[in-house]
Amino acid sequence: MANDSKSEKLRRLVGVQRQLERLAEFELSVSIARQAEVATSIDMTINAISSVDPIHKQFSKNYSDRLTRLFIKKQQLAAQQTMQEARVLKEKTKADRLQDRMKEAEILEERLMEDERMYDLVDLGLLMATPASSKLDDP
């Protein structure tokens, strides 16, 4: 792990960041599902309040209290959804930036490896051109 290149470290970070992004998206989907449940409950409560059935008339006060609580919960969930959407965007932006940095690091590492290969070829050429001993040059 100590010998890992910068691009490998960044690759792992990108993986972690993408996982955080997926987690944020999952939390957002749960929030949206809760909003749908609250909307369904609101519709059912409104239908019960507006019903002509005498049993519902007896519980009209309970229904109105429940409707008030549901509207408050709907507002809270809308605020929560806004925050979660911002978090998803933030996590995605972080992951994209890390991925860009990883690609730049890979390009830089490839250049460095290519430069090292060129230096090795030059060194090999110089070794072949020079005699093994300086005594060979003297008659």
Structure description:
It is a single chain. This protein has helices spanning 6-49, 54-58, 60-129. It has a domain at 6-102. Helix content is 86%, strand content 0%. It is built from 3 helices and no strands. It has 139 residues and is mainly alpha-helical. It starts with 5 loop residues before the first helix and ends in a 10-residue tail after the last helix.
Oligomer: single chain
Give the CA-based shape: rod-shaped
* Mean pLDDT, all residues: 89
Q: Compute the number of strand runs.
A: 0
Radius of gyration: 34 Å
**SS element count, helices:** 3
Spatial separation of the terminal alpha carbons = 56 Å
Q: What is the N-to-C succession of helices and strands?
A: HHH
Low-pLDDT residue spans: none
The largest β sheet comes out as: none
Structural class: mainly alpha
The helix fraction, in percent, is: over 70%
State which percent range the strand residues make up.
under 5%
